[in-house]
Specification:
This protein folds into three domains: about 45 residues, no CATH class; about 230 residues, Vaccinia Virus protein VP39 (Rossmann fold), CATH 3.40.50; about 90 residues, DNA Methylase, subunit A, domain 2 (DNA Methylase, Chain A, domain 2, Alpha-Beta Complex). It contains 16 helices and eleven strands. By secondary structure, the chain is an alpha/beta fold. Strands 4-3-5-6-8-7 form a six-stranded mixed beta sheet, with helices on both faces. The structure holds S-adenosylmethionine. The site of S-adenosylmethionine has 21 residues, from helix 3.
Length: about 450
Amino acid sequence: MKRLQLSVDERLYNKLVFKSGEAGDLPQEFVIKVLEEHLAHVKADDDPPLFRFVGSLDESQPHPQQGNFTFIDLFAGIGGMRRAFETQGGECIFTSEWDKFAQQTYEANFGERPHGDITSISSEQVPEHDILLAGFPCQPFSLAGISKKQSLGRATGFLDKAQGTLFFEVARIIRDKRPRGFLLENVKNLVSHDKGRTFTVIRETLEKLGYQVYWQVIDAKSYVPQHRERIFLVGFDRNYFQKDVDFSFPEPLTSDLWPKVGSILEKRVDKKFTLSDKLWEYLQAYRAKHAAAGNGFGFSLVGPTDTARTLSARYYKDGSEILVARKRGNPRKLTPRECARLMGFPEEQKIPVSNTQAYRQFGNAVVVPVVTDLAAAMLSAMNPLGGENSVPQELSDEATAAEILPRLDKKSSQRIRPTKRTVKKKTTVKRNSVKKSFDKRAARSSGKKSRQA
Ligand SMILES: C[S@@+](CC[C@H](N)C(=O)[O-])C[C@H]1O[C@@H](n2cnc3c(N)ncnc32)[C@H](O)[C@@H]1O
């Protein structure tokens, strides 16, 4: 069966939808009848077009196509990635996010509550999809996270069992569901963490799963007035596409076109966002102390013609990384709505949580227009290859794929709780028992035995 997508004139749409109960077993005759009736009343010159072509899908060979592809949203936060891929015509068919406040925001905006902890979700519970999105948590990879954990004498990165293994949850789902493509996001420091070893493990894992991997650090400042560098990894399934996918990252705009802070500021802002005298004095003293020691720590003031520093998830504490200068009086913090704008979220983004939670959520999010551009670039790279050259195949090198993954399957299957979205189709990848070499690899990179990795 082939599927054709058409936009339909509203009156025709209403007739087709509201009279569809009359179709019975003969949908063809019903559609022809409705069309004939409708055409009899249409004046060719005056009326808007009946149809507009949107896209097509050969269901015998599903492939992602702008306007017609599915995706899943892992570590979804408040759905920044989802917003971007939806604007490119994608349909989100599965979401995982465990934080209850993020779930609340997600539900207010997308009408559905995400599934929870990804480590408790088996691959069978995840539906087949075209593109996998994941902004897996960055704490073990960020400089702030590292210094905090090192000071507590704890290991970081892949050695941190609570967080570092979450990448392997992503890898597990990629291995088992074989999406045509994926987009992963993380902090810039991922590249240099542990002298580059962490990133090498991530890239090699994805490559050995049979994916062609591209990566780039992108600064959001040409999209929003914020210096925010994040690494994006884009991957394409070699088994599906059969030849290299010609993907390029979007080009940044020249600096004269960068938006400035003035474009995100609200006109009227409640007094409660203005810093108290005590806090403002403290921040000034803190900055002076560090300046005397020869470093540039401390608050940052912005005005309408500036680019802001990176909004962090800790912004709710004192807002010191981005303070808005005022003509009279102490500076103020950004409002949650201004943070939404600074992250490129549209005005209709609902903020149903406290200001503290909202700051955290925007500070953790992706800059939506950056991901929108990436989505468009991915789709245009994937489309030309979605034709006859792209026959989906069984994973040809099962041993290689399996050997680099830990035995998450066993772990997960013990914890399966059936959900409404359980998909019955079995994965084509056999879970064979070549985990030993993964253990060796993990032990090499950790210097420890890491069965739990
Ligand atoms: C960096 S944020 C991603 C933000 C997202 N890209 C956005 O635009 O809002 C990572 C998210 O992963 C979630 N998370 C962490 N561990 C998780 C787990 N085991 N299962 C599900 N979600 C998890 C966190 O609550 C956090 O919201």
